[in-house]
Design a protein that fits this description.
- The chain has 119 residues and is an all-beta fold.
- It is 0% helix and 51% strand.
- The chain contains no helices and eleven strands.
- Strands 2, 4, 5, 6, 9, 10 and 11 form a seven-stranded mixed beta sheet that branches. The chain has a four-stranded antiparallel beta sheet with strand order 1-3-8-7, with no helix packed on it.
């Protein structure tokens, strides 16, 4: 059973950088055929896919967030991270990490972590 756990600050000030980590257990982030993603959901709104990387290490980003988003991985820790720069209150959301199978279906989700952007 693969488990994902998000971690990071729950409060970030406007204009700062939001940084979250996703620690994976029960499966390797380098295992072939999977895609590891960050997804967010603002309160009262739908899910928004932010970006992720394939097992090969190739990264992909949502065009609307690409200029502010960086996703990296640490294979020694079996962990991947999200950085979102120049945050505003509109970036307040529950942030999830997830594993996708080749069809695009999300197979495993983290529990999510609420990040509030406020001064």
């Amino acid at each position: 059973q693969v488990q994902l756990q998000e971690s990071g600050p729950g409060l970030v000030k406007p204009s700062q950088t939001l940084s979250l980590a996703c620690t994976v257990s029960g499966g390797s982030i380098t295992a072939n055929g999977y895609f590891w993603s960050w997804i967010r959901q603002p309160t009262g709104k739908g899910l928004e896919w932010m970006g992720g990387f394939a097992s090969s290490g190739s990264s992909y980003y949502s065009p609307s967030l690409k200029s502010r988003t960086s996703i990296s991985r640490d294979t020694s820790k079996n962990q991947f991270t999200l950085q979102l720069t120049s945050v505003t209150p509109e970036d307040t959301a529950v942030y999830y990490c997830a594993r996708e199978v080749p069809t695009g279906r999300i197979e495993y989700w983290g529990k999510g972590t609420l990040v509030t952007v406020s001064s």
